Automatic annotation (TrEMBL), chains A, B:
Protein name: Anp1-domain-containing protein
Biological process (GO), any one: protein N-linked glycosylation
Pfam families hit by this protein: Anp1 (PF03452)
A GO molecular function held by the record: alpha-1,6-mannosyltransferase activity
Membrane topology: Single-pass type II membrane protein
GO CC entries: endoplasmic reticulum membrane; mannan polymerase complex
Length: 327, 327
């Protein structure tokens, strides 16, 4: 079989120069039948391929270790990262590559099917180009989420294949999930399903470890939210979690009940990107992350709206918790 | 290098069973730097990869022969087809595969870099599930174009890679273009640029061969068009080329001047998919083909609006003609 070499885009990178060669038959013809590509509740049994996508501004070893403890078969997992083009990104890349190298050069059974690292084109695209203290103000948040949406699209369009059954969006600051995360979430067999992102912390008043809700982007629409939107200018957006903009939406973050079943579902209208599983066909039909106001929503919340416009239902798992890193 | 075999999705297909094996290193890590991925006016010189995408309901040998006469280097061209799941599609697939086989098993210099054939999931997705006579009524057109948008998205998401510089949308009924089509169109170095689709016919009155405009989806917005849109219900759409819905938009189809330069450009707000070149970054940033009304536009016209919302400009080449098959 003749040897095929991808155009080397990355000659200044630190590692793996010799890993870029693919052996592809030169008379390459690929056939894919979307009719035989499934995403089912028995994903692992049916050998369905899962693409885990993570926009990464900072490498947390806890994120990586959590990924490594997932029990879904690694030969069915591809992972894609997108990293901002700035100094912080250089450091992130170095740390990420070091850990990837350990796994992908380890014994065959330990390796993921494929790992793709994408570096952003411009520093101005960086989804973390904001100071930490600015990150949660409303105006700054709009710009940040628009850039995050751009990054998600670049990552998605570059990595999804005609053989991908599921896409798992997992943020780089998610550091703790059940081992059976992918099996658990695929089992619900929903077009879009989002886990509830909480955070562990030390409760100073009660002097003990505790948990608190973290991601407020998973919500069900309220009539007040719709009313608010109807009065807005074309380019205004609603972002959840700001006192300036009370929406009275039902937030999944506040719907957690410790005593109820973790497999309980609720219908949602907006989702976050913390830990959200999407059937690949939803993306393939056209659902992306709007960088511009789409029904007054952007990024993952706009994506949920787009999935619904494409005819898909969106769900959340209020009692299925995953954890954001302590800051 | 260990041997890697894609999961065979297509065991009932007619040909090429033995062509599906890819040799990929098992410790596969791919690095792509979007900063070094360019789309420039010197595309061929800079070895920029072009992805030609064609939704194909009927195989016309004239389309294929036209593709083969393009002078852009074939080692830089990937082609993707999506074919409906119906009887017509079976025939199309057979004819297409026969011709592809000739080229991709021919001598190395004749081969395209890669050809991907995608078969749609369901018969109901078929973008040609309508009788020929219905194809041009307004109501039917809406549904047809929504399905066409779906097909374009499925094809795009399945074939675009992190190494793709340009995407050329070429309809299956385009049978005549200049040999230098890709060089000519990339030379304009625009985010989106559309050729003017005409049709050859025999003028019975004048008893001679003649040409006439064919694709009316390339247009610049008018104040009346905007006014029309502002009065429409959320899910109504404007489709160009129907007497029921006069928009007074400036149509590129009517802007052709035989005596003017073929390299002349005009700014557009809507495009058709007949022969439209897109910088891959426009798609990668999120521009897809809305299957639902997006600013009262769908499919390629909605795509143009989305590209503009993402900050890209859209152009047409009024005097650069390509030809639709005679029906």
């Amino acid at each position: 079989m003749p040897k095929y070499i991808y155009k080397k885009k990355t000659k200044n990178w630190l590692f793996f120069q010799n890993k870029q060669e693919d052996l592809i038959p030169q008379s390459h013809i690929a056939h894919y039948d979307l009719n035989t590509l499934h995403s089912t509740e028995d994903a692992a049994l049916n050998k369905e391929q899962v693409l885990i996508l993570t926009p990464m501004q900072t490498f947390h070893i806890e994120y990586w270790n959590n990924l490594l403890q997932l029990s879904y078969p690694r030969e069915l997992i591809e992972i894609g990262f997108i990293i901002p083009r700035n100094k912080n990104g250089d450091e992130t890349l170095k740390n990420l590559e070091r850990e990837i190298k350990k796994i992908q050069t380890d014994k065959k059974e330990s390796r993921f099917k494929k790992i793709t690292i994408l570096r952003q084109e411009q520093e101005s695209d960086s989804f973390n180009a904001l100071g930490e203290k600015d990150r949660h103000s409303l105006e700054v948040q709009k710009e940040r989420r628009s850039k995050m949406a751009l990054s998600r699209n670049q990552l998605l369009f570059s990595t999804i294949g005609p053989y991908t059954s599921w896409v798992l969006w997992m943020d780089a600051d998610i550091v703790e999930t059940p081992t059976s995360l992918i099996q658990d979430m695929t089992f619900h067999n929903k077009p879009v399903v989002s886990a509830n992102v909480f955070q562990r912390y030390f409760n100073e008043d009660e002097k003990k470890d505790a948990i608190r809700p973290y991601d407020f982007n998973n919500w069900a629409e309220s009539s007040l939210g719709l009313q608010l939107a109807s009065k807005m200018g074309e380019d205004e957006i609603i972002v959840e979690g700001y006192a300036e903009l009370a929406t009275y939406r039902l937030l999944m973050a506040h719907s957690y009940k410790a005593t109820d079943s973790p497999s309980e579902t609720m219908e949602l209208d907006g989702v976050g990107g913390g830990c959200t599983l999407v059937k690949a066909e939803v993306h393939r039909d056209g659902a992306m992350f709007p960088t511009f106001p789409f029904y007054h929503l952007i990024e993952t919340e706009g994506f949920a709206k787009m999935a619904k416009r494409l005819g898909y239902a969106v769900y959340g798992l209020p009692n299925y918790l995953v954890y954001h890193i302590e800051e």
